[in-house]
Amino acid sequence: MIDYLKTLRQEVINRIPAFGEITFSFEYPPNPAFGDLSIAACFDMAKRQKRKPREVALEMAALLQGLPMVRKVDIAGGGYINFHLDRPAFLRYLLTHEKSIARQADEKIIVEHTNINPNKAAHVGHLRNAVLGDTLVRLLRHQGYEVEAQNYIDDTGVQVADVVCAFQQIRKMTIEEVKAIPDPFDYYCWDLYADFSGRLAADSALQALREQTLQLIEHGGNPTSELAHLIATRIVTAHLATMRRLGVRYNLLAWEGDILHRRFWTTLFSLLKEKNAIQLATEGKNAGCWIMELPDLPEAEKVIVRSSGVVTYVGKDIAYQMWKFGLLGLDFHYAPWGHDDEGRIIWTTAREPHDDHPPFGRASRVYNVIDVRQSYLQKVVSKGLLALGFTSACENSIHFSYEMVALTQQCARELGYDLSHEDEGRPFVEVSGRKGLGVKADDLLNALERQAHSEVAGRNPQFDESVLRDIARSVAGGALRYFMLKFGRSKVLAFDFREALNFDGETGPYLQYSAVRARNIFSKLREREGVDASVISEIIQDAGSYEYLNEATDIWELILTAAKVDEIAALSIVSLELSLFAKHSYTLAQKFNAFYHKHAILHETDQSKKRLRLLAAHYLSSTMQTALNLMGIELPTRM
RNA sequence: GCGCCCGUAGCUCAAUUGGAUAGAGCGACAGACUUCGAAUCUGUAGGCUGGGAGUUCGAGCCUCUCCGGGCGCACCA
To answer: How many C-beta neighbours within 10 Å does residue A491 have?
Structure first.
């Protein structure tokens, strides 16, 4: 439909050149009886000409007769122009038109997401990030862009140092002993990290040891950094296994240690000094540090290099961001890490060169999926690019920000956390790895799978255990992914088990169920009547199949809803509001269910009705499958 | 203190970015399986869109102001 609207828009401007100056777009009338499309441009035009909107609309509507696939143009309300489409012609167009989503020329996009510190298990907050990021990747690819999904791994930061220090100082364990800890290793570290963080605040000797640990890790080539590497690798393996359960895919794991090792930072440091983008502070609280001045941000200066000479995270991140745009003149080494759920290689940055790898980086646009609390730092990164004169890279660095995930009071109580007096007075409780406070991603997925398993088994006692498990996995994933997508990104997600484990109403399983039913119509058709795909394509080609659509207004509305899917996908990307896409997919499923309930298809005896309903079901089924796929929600074999 | 975000039905959220009668789900109540699958469908109840002022053909959305809440403003990331 998005292609058709482009053509129609151009045709309208050809007829009425004045509309070219007004930024008008097609809207959808609230009441379908008004028409299928509408434009409100006459209100603007009337204002310019100091006339009545309705008068202008009447005049303009007269110029818009005989547009392609438009049956009638009329006016309504204060000055809307409404378009009524030629239903049979339009549905035929939808079913026969080649998807013309062309590859966007030379534009490569990088989406960085997940980015979990490799020192503990993933929790619900990380799931929101990964699902948003992975869905954005899928939507962009659907639009024809070349997209590289990257997962940044901060293996040399304080958080890993905490766990390393905890193993060495608290647990007194050797690297061999750590290696021997059984899975789930990420769960083990979750508790250890919380334990260590609790002790750290009150123990200055421990703080000093942790500082030493950090320096050893950054320096590399010693037993401590080896232990850090072991821990980070085991944790990343666990994170990727968790994400794989949800169909989240990556092309590249970018390790911070490699940014240091490949001298990205030292190169950037010289460049920053050369361009006077940073200054050595000689007085004040930041004396001895290299700082970046940020006159229009709340904190007027940001430390890039500490007085100890150690670079901060922001410094490394500016280097990484520059590399993404191909502006650093340096590259990583790469090696294969593993495979995603579709069997494609996941690459990792590496210490040693590897013979044959695809090109990475050199994007023209970059999305960083990071929660809203890091807005300030993301601004510093893009200001850094600007200070170096990379205007275009700065403009094309997009912070995809979203609000944090918290726990409802009730959820925190169910998990048995002792809340501080302060926390008890709040509307929700912030998830904190440091405090060990949160719902672990795998625990949540396990709970969803258990629930889905019992629902499926209850309905289908004849299924084998292996089938049950596969369906349960797929339903659990669908429930979780939809749950993470349905909320607007600027809304704090207060997590609650009752809501997340619900499979009725506006949920992933509802969408899956609808799509499964739609598909089953065609398998039943094959079984009972021997009708296969070739018969469907005959019906599509036959103009007579569409005639009944003029009377079937409810089916027509259903088809229009489906036709909007690609346009909503584009809108979701522009606004970064992926909930738009989720909601629209839900509306589609809802309308399909109503249609399914109201009209018989296989049992319909009137052939013209039956043919049209088959066409509608066919179009709906394929559109719902596309929509699910874009959200990373699997279509279960049965439910 | 400065900056950003949120406030819509009992609860959780929408509202085509300034458009036509503010919509969904959950929960509640009343119905529908001998049928292409009831994880479904149909109906009922539920609203001064936090308060006030302004902008205009038109405001849940924009401006100002007040109220309530959240998050930032490290030589952590």
So the answer is: 10
pLDDT at A101 over 70: no
Q: For residue A310, is it left (φ>0), alpha (ψ between -120 and 50) or beta?
A: beta
Which domain does A49 fall in, by range? 2-85
| pLDDT, tens only, A250-274 | 999 999 999 999 999 999 999 999 9
Cα-only R_g, chain A: 28
d(CA A166, CA A168): 5
- A218, A169 in Cβ contact below 8 A? no
Using CA atoms, how far apart are residues A100 and A517, in angstroms rounded to an integer? 29
- Answer whether residue A24 shows pLDDT above 80: no
The whole-chain average pLDDT of chain A stands at 91
pLDDT, position A61: 87
Assess whether A74 (CB) lies less than 7 A from strand B: no
Q: Which of the listed residues A351, A379, A404 is the one where a domain comes to its end?
A: A404
Q: Which of A633, A421, A372, A429 is nearest to A513 (CA)?
A: A633
Backbone angles phi, psi at A347, to 5 degrees: -95, 160
| Residue A59 pLDDT | 85
pLDDT at A554: 87
Cα–Cα distance for residue pair A452/A145, rounded to 1 Å: 35
First-residue to last-residue Cα distance in chain A: 31
- Is pLDDT at A369 greater than 70 in this prediction? yes
* Same domain assignment for residues A623 and A510: yes
Residue A517 approaches strand B within 7 Å at CB: yes
* Across A311-339, average pLDDT: 95
In this prediction, residue A100 carries a pLDDT of: 57
Q: Classify the C-alpha dihedral A385-A387-A391-A397 as positive or negative.
A: positive
pLDDT: which is higher, A55 or A585: A585
- Give the model's pLDDT for residue A99: 65
Q: What is the DSSP letter of A374?
A: G
The set of strand B positions with any atom below 7 Å of a protein CB reads 1-6, 12-17, 19-21, 24-27, 35-42, 57-58, 69-77
**Residue located via tokens 């369906």:** A471
- Give buried/exposed letters for A235-249 (b at 16+ CB in 10 A, else e): bbbbbbebbbbbbbb
Tell whether A196 and A277 lie within a shared domain.
yes
Residues A249 and A323 occupy one common structural domain: yes
Bridge partners of residue A81, in order along the sequence: A39, A75
Specify if A427 maps to a domain.
no
Whose C1' is closest to the CA of A39: which nucleotide? B19
CA of A558, C1' of B55: distance in angstroms: 39
> Closest protein residue to B75 using CA and C1' atoms?
A306
Give the DSSP H or E segment for A553.
helix A553-563
